[in-house]
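User: My advisor asked me to double-check a structure prediction for SRPBCC domain-containing protein before group meeting. I don't want to rely on an old file, so could you generate it fresh from this sequence?
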Amino acid sequence: MKSENILTASVSINKPIELVWKLWNKAEHIAKWNAPSADWINKKIENYLVEGGEFLYAMVKKDGSEKFDFKGTYTEIILHKSLSYTLDDGRKTTITFTGNEPVNLTEIFEPVTGLDLTMQQEFCQSVLNKFKVYAEQL
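Assistant: Sure, here is a fresh prediction for SRPBCC domain-containing protein from the sequence you gave:
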């Protein structure tokens, strides 16, 4: 990853690493937490969790005013430790999972050029916060 223009979001989840990993990576769970707010839904989730495997999170605002596909390819997977991927637009992301009860989940990503950096960081942080709530209620 380039050293400039890197954004980071993190959250601490009071659950075992095995559960956190499963909830983060299984499509049936991703559909329940992957949104920055209640205004968004996932129309389609695909996640082929192997190096070279692809993922797609097709998201849409409930009112239909915005939509986007979050799509990429996994470049490195270390079970219960980290995921790295490259998005279709070439931006790179690494997600680390450290500890166990709590698990510290940190997402380090290259932002979209030309979009407000604070908005992008807050968007990512809000998704992680929603994941924490989802994981800790189980």
